[in-house]
Amino acid sequence: MTVGLIPGSFDPFHNGHLEVVERAALIFDEIVVAAIRNPQKSASLFELEERQEMIADSTKHIPNVRIVAIATLLVNVARDVNATAIVKGLRAVSDFESELQMAQMNRSLSGVETLFIPTSSNHSFIASRLLREVARYGGDVSHFVPAPVAVRLQEKFRGAQ
After folding, report:
1. I want to staple 149 with a disulfide (CB 3.0 to 4.6 A). Which of 103, 115, 136, 145 is the partner?
2. What is the pLDDT of residues 86-133, one digit of tens each?
3. From 41, 60, 61, 66, active-site residue
4. 17 is catalytic
């Protein structure tokens, strides 16, 4: 059985993330989406459990998806879920530079390969950081995120403007 592991902070999970999950689900027997609190990023908007719930709600139409949380090195999670490959979405060439370094480190540590899936042009500009900022100031991001995420964002920022 082939298993693709898709890691990310997913804060919030958006349509670019969903596209990568949907496309990877056609390649692998199982997709494991692993949410992490990334210490290199600013404080999270949503708690890890909330992000897992949003991912599960957003991917329930994909039967071969499983959601987990990461509290260790990615290569340890890859081993624990028997990942055939780590799957990463790429929006732009600038993403490739940092992702390539991580892929090389992960392969050196564990032998697990990384598969890069470029997002379509209609999702290439979407970034969770930008969505948080727009939503925080009352902007409508509903066409950039799955419906369950749009609801959570509205609830989070209701009355904050």
Report:
1. 145
2. 999 999 888 898 999 999 999 999 999 999 999 999 999 999 999 999
3. 41
4. yes
